[in-house]
Amino acid sequence: MINTIPAIAVFFKPRMYGTRYLKELGDRAVVTWSLTEPAGGIQDMTWTPTVNRFQAVLHANGTIDLSYNDVHAQDAIVGVYPEVAGASEREIASIPSGATPGASPNLDIRRLRLTAVNGVFLDGAIETAGPVLPEGDSAAAGVVYRVCVSRTKPAGGCTADTDGLVWSIFGVRARGRASSGSRYFASGSGVRPNVTVQGNTISVRGTLPAGYKAGEQLYVSAAAQGPGAAAPADQVPPQLVQLTGVNSPAVDFSSVKRQDGPYAVAYESFHYLKPPRAMDLTCTVIKALGDKYDFLAYYSDFRIDNPEAGTSSTGPLGGGPAGGAVTGIGAEQRNLASYCSQGRFQWQYIQPVYVGANQMAEYPPAGVVDSNRHNILAYEHELTERTSNGKIPPYDYAMSQIGHEMGHRWAAFVSAKVNGETIQLGPTHWARGLQAPVAFPYQRPVEASAMGGGVWQDNYDGTFTQLDDDYYVPATGWSYLDLYLMGFISPSEVPDFFILRNLTPAGRDRNGHPIFRADRTKVTIQDVIAVEGPRLPDVDHSQKDFNTGMVVVVEHGKVPSAELLEKTNGIRLRWMDYWTTTTGHRSTMTSEP
Question: How far is CA 87 from CA 117, 118, 392, in A?
């Protein structure tokens, strides 16, 4: 938020909604909020609304009063963010480093500079003997530069594990199937992701973490490392410098004193635990239990720092027990070693799902109603008709989440070539207008793919009725295109489909289904193959048996709660049934440690 727009964060938390009130008086303006956290949805932490009431009083003399009446939410940002104009710079340190025999000129560090900017930003610039490889140069992929700031002298120099502040600059391959270029991005506490490359200098900018104050004595160091190297090519050894001209804008409002300032920006963030890196989670499991998982799903009994209950997914796109790459799906195998896999592991949750979140509930609580068609309770009547206990199918939200995320192992990345035009059908979820009916429905007669798209009825008058939309609630199965990309059906089994473009609302039918005017383009599976090539291994040689590891994650030193174990096991059992049903019994799923 710093220097993006002037802001007063009274209680800034994404996805809150409710009523705001404004009262203007002669010497002040009063703004009051009465909000709830999001409720009832698959990405929510509560089934019912919560109470959050707070107020800001903006006095004519510039004083700001923030007060809180009743706050249920535990995570938010509180602070004042004036725009920091101009470019007041103050050099903190300029540390020379000698020539390093054998180091490439772009990795041979000659100087590390630290500069305070406007009293709030810290710039770290690494100067090298020769030009830094520019973005776009494929040789930059895998290059790493680091700047480290620590209260104690790091014994091993500047590494990813150095205590304190570590800002890392990574050279990575640019996205895209045909791309051979590269780009840089920065990672670390408070650092901005964008990186500046100018001649022999590569630099980053960020803010100091909470607790760092002007006048402190700190150890500063830097390192440069080549692609795939186990050790740095060159380092600037730790040097003791005095932090001047910059404060951390992150403060503890309950303990900060007037004399601690002034602050160009001041805020306090309230948050949950930061989750481990996805690759570290996976390596922990595979190193302990072996490389025998196609998928890994993580569940925890503590909340993590994410405003949504769900998780995105990632993975190296391994080839299962037989190894080898899957081609013709618009995505390429990558980076197996970073996941500690010899070739089997394919896809995973990025972070654990909290046991208290809606999507880990076996059933919604009794007595709760909801008319939002993206929430499960809006479908309660039709879903209870297929069960014997008068309840919706168990762990329905959990199946929506795991089915959708693990489906990203194959979808939705492909394009099609129709009459010489290449049409993107995704790029990550199927386009809203893609005709994607489910081949083997999970629980309703008419379902759109778990990966997006819709079920569209052609009214043959230029309009189309949307019988099911592109949202993945309730849990749904896979389209014919999905099943082809997964290797479970042949090209000849994929019916011709279509994509609607230029969608324009045109009312609703008698059953409440939305109607749109649109331009229809017919698509065949051969149009997809014309762009991506055939799916290999083909249906006769593709993997059919899969194994998912269900991993419970706890805080260090604690044991998993009975609730966490019970719910994870319930999800495990439903996941195996879901997989068999939605693949038309053409594939099996186990969950064996």
Answer: 6, 6, 60
Closest CA to 457 of 481, 435, 429, 476: 435
CA 583 from chain center: how many Å? 27
Q: How far apart are CA 334 and CA 320, in angstroms?
A: 14
Neighbours of 427 (CB within 10 A): 12
> Which pLDDT band, with edges at 50, 70 and 90, does 24 fall under?
very high
State the pTM of this model: 0.88
Owner of token pair 């992150």: 250
For β-strands 545-553 and 295-300, DSSP reports them as parallel
Mean pLDDT of 61-70: 96
User: To which H or E segment does residue 401 belong?
Assistant: helix 396-407
DSSP at 322: G
User: What mean pLDDT comes out for the span 500-521?
Assistant: 97
3-state secondary structure of 336: helix
3-state secondary structure string, 107-176?
A: CCEEEEEEEEECCCEEEEEEEECCCCCCCCCHHHCCCEEEEEEECCCCCCCCCCCCCCEEEEEEEEECCC
71 or 162, higher pLDDT = 71
Strands 452-458 and 430-435: parallel
| Cβ pair 224, 232 in contact under 8 A | yes
Here the tokens at position 407 are 């489906």
Cβ–Cβ < 8 Å for 561, 301:
yes
pLDDT-derived band at 439, boundaries 50, 70, 90: very high
Residue 3 three-state SS: coil
Distance CA 95, CA 89 (A): 17
The C-alpha atoms of residue 240 and residue 150 are separated, in whole angstroms, by 9
567 vs 532: CA distance, rounded Å = 40
- Write out the CATH class of domain 89-242: mainly beta
Amino acid at 96: P
Residue 259 has pLDDT above 90, yes or no: no
Q: What is the pLDDT of residue 175?
A: 64
- What integer pLDDT is reported at residue 1 of this predicted model? 86
Structure tokens at 438: 């489910």
pLDDT, position 211: 82
Angstrom distance (rounded) from CA 459 to CA 505: 14
Does residue 294 sit in helix, strand or coil? Answer: coil
pLDDT of residue 161: 86
Please identify which residue in the block is written with the tokens 């963010």.
Answer: 81
List pLDDT tens digits, range 71-100: 999 999 999 999 887 778 999 999 999 888
CB contact at 8 A, 121 and 194: no
- Domain ranges for the chain: 7-84+265-270, 89-242, 278-407+543-590, 415-532
61 pLDDT band, cuts 50/70/90, is: very high
Helix and strand totals (H; E) in the chain: 6, 30
Closest CA to 30 of 48, 54, 51: 54
Q: Cα–Cα distance between 113 and 91 in angstroms, integer? A: 8
Instruction: Give the Cα separation of 299 and 568 in Å (integer).
Output: 7
